[in-house]
Structure to design on (117 residues):
């Protein structure tokens, strides 16, 4: 059992750490609609290089009037060869509840949009 534990520890140390999600570089457009108590938020933006994956929206908080969301993605792993150009990304999320407006944060900018009914 001790041998197995040592091997497992060695494998875990050798595996590259997964990069934490980070805000995308910028948000270019935002559409928020509400129907039957569900808010659909759709965002388009860009990341600074190729290699970014899993763009998604993460709800930070809401007070019933304003819903604040981060636009996130997983950056490329260290040492990965990527193109050095802005790459478009899109993401959407459905959120149960109500709000009058949605505020989305990116690294370089932020956009607020009224929720359309």
């Amino acid at each position: 059992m001790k041998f197995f534990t040592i091997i497992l520890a060695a494998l875990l140390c050798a595996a590259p750490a997964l990069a934490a999600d980070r805000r995308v570089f910028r948000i270019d457009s935002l559409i928020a609609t509400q129907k039957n108590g569900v808010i659909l938020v759709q965002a388009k933006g860009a990341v600074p290089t190729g290699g970014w994956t899993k763009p998604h929206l993460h709800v930070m908080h809401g007070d019933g009037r304003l819903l604040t969301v981060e636009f996130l993605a997983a950056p490329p792993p260290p040492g990965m060869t990527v193109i050095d150009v802005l790459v478009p990304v899109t993401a959407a999320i459905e959120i149960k509840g109500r709000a009058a407006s949605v505020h989305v944060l990116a690294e370089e900018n932020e956009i607020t949009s009224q929720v359309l009914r």
Observations:
- Residues 1-19 have pLDDT under 50 and may be disordered.
- Residues 19-114 form one domain.
